[in-house]
Amino acid sequence: MEKLNIDELSIEEMEALEQKIKAKKNAAKEQNQAAYLELREGFMTKLKGRVLKEASEIEAFANFVRNESQGFLNVMKEYGQLRRTSQMGYVLVYDNFKLEVKANKVKRFDERADVAAERLIDFLRQWIKDKDKGAEDPLYQLAMTFIERNANGDLDYKQISKLYQLEEKFSSTEYSEIMDLFRESHVVEDTAVHYYFYQKDEYDVWRKVEISFNRF
Fold first, then answer.
1. What pLDDT score was predicted for residue 172?
2. Beta strands 206-209; 186-200: pairing state
3. Tell me, what's the pLDDT at 2?
4. What pTM value is reported for the model?
5. Of all helices (H) and strands (E), which one includes residue 79?
């Protein structure tokens, strides 16, 4: 193949060559992008199918655990195996497998907390207007983080409690009124029941069987 001598090319030929090189680069870029998009689509399609399938099975498993454990709790009540009739937590061991059921009161908020959260957002947006850093102000970002809702769409009691500690920093009557509304809306609404599974290893030590791989 004869080598190209650029010095011998005319301006028009060099411009044409430049366009040709540019077109080749664009074609290669588009080809790479198409390959990437194809891989992304394949990955997400495969992941979506597996996640939804496993989520459905895990939900069914959770319902199974709740129903069966509640049924056995009733049996233990009938046979007098509980310290008190209101007991919800217990531990069962069979061979090298152990089930531990723990129950605790869940601290939540009533509908007034939703109003307080909206007022707080409005307050914070007005507050940053007078700040040099605006939305980048660390105090603003911290407060906004505390009112983020969990996967169930509920406000987190521990996070909201941290807002109370910022009253002096904001030093505002409006902020204090919002915090009072949060305090008034606090209720102990329900009892959360958690199930833990353990299995003994070869060293006779109990190891927790994790259902959620996100905890690894």
1. 93
2. antiparallel
3. 58
4. 0.59
5. none
